[in-house]
Amino acid sequence: MKLYIRQKVFSIGARFNITDENGEERYLVEGEVFALGKKLHIYDITGEEVAFVQQKLLSLMPRFHVYVNGEKIAEILKEFTFLKPRYDIFGKGWTVEGDFLSHDYAITEGGREIARVHKVWMSWGDSYELDILDTDEEVPLIAVILIIDAVMDAGQSSCSS
Prior knowledge:
This protein has one helix and twelve strands. It has one domain (2-160): LURP1-related (Porin, Beta Barrel), CATH 2.40.160. By secondary structure, the chain is mainly beta. A hairpin with an 8-residue loop joins strand 7 (71-78) and strand 8 (87-90).
């Protein structure tokens, strides 16, 4: 299944849709404006919250928790590295590899690719294409991809300041 997210979605009070390949809305993502750390709510098309992402504060490196139905299902930690960003995903057994700066990477489980992300150019602006191969894990995969984008955006913002 292919889903699309517009680039630069993490502005203050972010609110954006995730659409399918036909342009139909599949999810709504809302960021909290006055929150300490990033907090994102992911809703399905009926308006029901399907996931919540919360940045853990007081952590040396960016660390996020993913909740589905009120239960913590994963913790994502950006590791300290000099050359190439690396993310650990605890609780799911997933690994993330690729070129994060170019937004071209894959998420694998046990060596099997379960999702791929890459930047595409569309008529209304550039966006990310999420190719979800394991649809049973669609919502957690979306949450992980949003976290990586948030961390990359924060890193680019701090470098350009």
